[in-house]
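A quick aside before the break. I want you to see a complete sequence-to-structure record at least once, exactly as it would be stored in a machine-readable document. Don't worry about memorizing anything.
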Amino acid sequence: ELAEALQHVEVATALYRQLGTLNSTCRVLSLAADITLDLAESMHGADGADGADGEARTAREDYLMQASNYIEEALRVGLAAHDAEGSALARLSRARLAGVRGDSAGFSGPEADIREALRQARQLHDDSLMAAAQTALGNNLLAQKKTEMGKRWLNKAIATATGANAPGLAFRAQRSLRR
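That is the input. The structure line, written in C-alpha cells, reads:
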C-alpha cells in the first residue's frame, strides 16, 4: 500500500509542478519524501544488520536516495515560494532521513532542524506543523534511547493533533508509541 501511495503522490507532484503552485509542490514533495522513508524503513534488516540480501539493501538505498532528492527539491521550492511551513516540513523530512541513515552529515543535525520547525510552528500558530515537529522530536529522542522524554513529546503530538480536531495528524506518534 505504501508503494501505491507513493505512485499517487508522484502524480500529484507532477501536477503541482506543471501548475507552478510552489507552496503545494513543496508540501507534496515532503509527503513524497516521508512515504519513501516509510518504504525504506519497511525494508527490515536491509541495512545489513540482520543479514538482508543485497537486493533488499539496494532497494533500501534507492528509497533513501529518492527521499533525499524529494527533500532537496522541497527545500529549494519552499525557499523560492517563501513557504515557511512547507520548508519546515521539508526540514523535518531531512531530519528523519538523517535518522534513518544513521548520520547527520552535511547539516547541523536532525535535532536542530526539528527544534527550528518547533519554533516556527509556535510562531505561526500552526498546529499541524507543531504535531509533526513534536512527533519528530519524540522519535529522535527515542532513537537516542531517551525513552521517557521521547514518549512525552509523542504524547504532546497526540494532544496537539486532538486539540486541533485533526486526529489523523496523531497517527505517526501513536504508531511510534506502540513500538
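Two observations worth writing down. Helices lie at 2-19, 22-41, 54-81, 84-101, 110-124, 127-143, 147-163, 171-178. Residues 54-81 form the longest helix (28 residues). We'll return to this after the break.
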